[in-house]
Amino acid sequence: MNSQTQLRINGERLWGSLMELAKLGATEKGGVCRIALTDLDRQGRDLFARWAREAGCEVRVDQIGNIFARRAGRDNTLPPVVTGSHIDTQPTGGKFDGNYGVLAGLEVIRSLNDAGIVTEAPLEIAVWTNEEGSRFVPVMMGSGVFVDAFTLEHALAQHDNDGISVAEALASIGYAGAAPASAAASPVGAYFEAHIEQGPVLEANERVIGVVEGALGQRWYDVVMQGMEAHAGPTPMELRKDALLAASELVIEVNRIALAHAPHARGTAGWIENYPNSRNVIPGRVKLSVDLRAADDVVLSAMDAELKESVQRIAAKGKVEATVEQVVYFPPQPFTPTLVSAIREAAQAQGMTWMNVISGAGHDAVYLARVCPTAMIFVPCLDGISHNEIEDAQPDHLEAGCNVLLQAMLQSAGVASS
Fold it and tell me: Collapsing DSSP states into helix, strand and coil, what is residue 176?
């Protein structure tokens, strides 16, 4: 057992694989543009599938295009221990978001092959379809279908801005698989996901490993402030129905609500549409987005109530009408304590600096946690920057996270006795 706990992955090989995949859709600024279900996505999928087969894995594709690469265990009747992420990117994406989780899983399998280790349960790498949601909505589409968060039929019917459906795009790149896209049909014994943090906390605290205890719950809203357009010169200030003024007050209130529920609350007004958007016209209608997040559903519900009260109070003060529509709700998702502990213990055993963290972003792991034991591993990214072509991570940090993943997966899958 001591030799197994001392087993390490090949960091140079992991980095080389990441750089090879990053060539597909490479941008001038050093990032990657590999949008879901495009020909570049097909090339990335083909490359991963070839590497997985070369590592001795059996590759299957399900009806939503998720790829599963299975390394046999001693007892293949056991549900697999799965790891993975996604390889689709944002239009101005980086080399590591999602890609690291997929190729860390591949490196675990390559390293076990090198060491001649057979696990008791089989291992799988999952490549989830359309995680980013930059071409098709909803986001995290492949894992969402897999856990029955929405139906396969609903996902396949979604269209991009050019009117192409998910079903058509899957067929066009050759990844409309036959396997059922269902955790009920393909049970998972445990799921791990390694990922860059996409935030600044680990770097600020000089820690290499983030032991992710769960993910923030999210509520997204569309808010409309309806006032009245009027001439900016003749209309006295006290007689105006300025929709933008009301919306501006709400933006400040969103920030206040999040600060009042520190440390894990978040509040963002990230998008705004102003009508008629003319220099000398008082704005008559403003639509804006509000994104509230918290680690506890009681807190998130309190923030929801505060937001709605604030909207009505601000609208009354500004003599405008207001509507609030919730468009997304993800409940806070704790991860499985035993798996979280396995990650923490693996980091400690290897002498790595670590800290407990909460994920502020959505990941495929958040959906998988609905159907199986789940945990995540974070590693730092430079300045916390992600969804950006300059996204960067240190090779030794990526190697460290992959070594933690290796030990956590071995603990869950078990090592077959020789």
Answer: coil
